[in-house]
Amino acid sequence: METVPPESDANRPTAVLPWTQLLQLSIYWLGINGIWGALDGVVLQARMPGIVGEEGTGIALAVAKILAVLIAIIVQPTVGSISDYTMSRWGRRKPYIAIGATLDVFFLIGIAMSNSFVAIVAFLILLQFSSNFAQGPFQGYVPDLVPAKQVGTASALVGVMTVLGVIGGQAFAYSGFLLGRDFTLPTIGVGIIEFSTAMGTIFWVREGRKPKPREGKSWKAIALEAWGTDILRERSYVWLVASRLFILAGVGVIYNLNVLYMERSLGLNDSDKSLWGTLASVLIGVSILVVSIPSARLADRYGRKAVIYAACVSGIVGMVILVMSPVMAVSMVGILLVAVGAGSFLAVDWALMTDIIPKAASGRFMGMSNVATASAGPVALIVGGPLLTFLPGAAGPRAAMAAGAVFFLLGALLLRPVDPRRREDNVVADGGARVLEPLPEP
């Protein structure tokens, strides 16, 4: 299998990739996020009231999310780090993608067939394990393969596929309302779609750089390496992960509570939820397609942080509209603004992350960034779930949307200390060796 020649930590690949390869590098995100778009965005919100009762739904969703995501936080960076050192005839990333994607289908069948809270949570935990077993190594491909001049485009495509996966999974799952609230086929269907996109990655994505040399390290030591405190020295990386956490938590409020918002704050019935939910998904998808590439180009001209700040402003305004909206038609304006903010953020976030991490350990660093991605939903539900429980009727979901606006604000504030310069631009010669020049204090 063709591999990219070994490169130093500071150097990015130089070979220009064809568009077909850039698309294939991003399409697995559609499959992965389709699963969680369906489950978190529709299926769990629709099924939990019948399992735990209306009053317990908010807390149940928060508990289920927290327990499952703890697994994701542990698994993704650990397996990502292990994949940095893996040597196989399939390369260092693909074995993990194949195993994880296959297990995803079986665990989704388990969720679809389960009718108790304990069983659903158990299969959610297993699904988080398998999904992140694949996702951690997969995240290393962009730093492995994409040259500096294409990283903006690659990041935009990742953003597009991520959001299209979420809204596509939601739109697919809304069909369960039209099937008499039977979500069995939608739940299994998103697993089959995810498996198909994984197979495309395995067969058509070329392998990246060669594995890091183990130098006598045990696999246990390599797994623990992901959690080494040396990562805290990468100050810009740490601040960016924190900023990402709160921005995605802002998006996560509406993503994880949209069905309950439509039911309790706007009084929509099942037929109306299916109609408006599908229309919202289409609107979000079109918005993402429209803003992603322009956002990436604006980031190349004005800086990635400037685009993220603008995305946060759009998200804040959108959430405020959702708080105050009297009817779904007005809410759609708020949803549109949140979608524009989310699309702009996702279009450049990966590029900024890829710029500032050590390239040889991309599996570890990109996997660790999932601490923010995976924690965003629980953070949204830790705040939003109790609000749904303790504030009656329409007030609970509206208060949760207000919390979402605060999350966007915190994300913007935490972005300020991030040094956006490419890591390879901070390299200087020192006695013939290439070392990283210390970045200035924020």
Task: Provide a descriptive summary of the structure in words.
By secondary structure, the chain is an all-alpha fold. The chain has one domain: MFS general substrate transporter like domains (Growth Hormone, Chain: A, Up-down Bundle). It contains 16 helices and 2 strands. It has helices at 19-52, 57-85, 94-113, 117-138, 141-145, 151-173, 175-178, 184-204, 219-225, 235-265, 270-302, 304-324, 328-356, 362-368, 370-390, 395-415; strands at residues 427-430, 433-436. The chain has a two-stranded antiparallel sheet. A hairpin with a 2-residue loop joins strand 1 (427-430) and strand 2 (433-436). Helix 2 (57-85) runs parallel beside helix 4 (117-138), helix 3 (94-113) packs antiparallel against helix 4 and helix 6 (151-173) packs antiparallel against helix 11. The protein starts with 18 loop residues before the first helix and ends in a 6-residue tail after the last strand.
Largest sheet: 2 strands, antiparallel
Tally the beta strands: 2
What is the chain-wise order of helices and strands?
HHHHHHHHHHHHHHHHEE
* CATH second-level architecture: Up-down Bundle
- In percent terms, what proportion of residues is strand? under 5%
From the alpha carbons, calculate the radius of gyration and give it in angstroms: 21 Å
Can you tell me the CATH topology?
Growth Hormone, Chain: A
Backbone shape:
globular
Give the strand line-up of the largest sheet: 1-2
Mean pLDDT: 84
Task: Please identify the structural class as seen in this structure.
Answer: mainly alpha
> For this structure, what is the CATH class?
Mainly Alpha
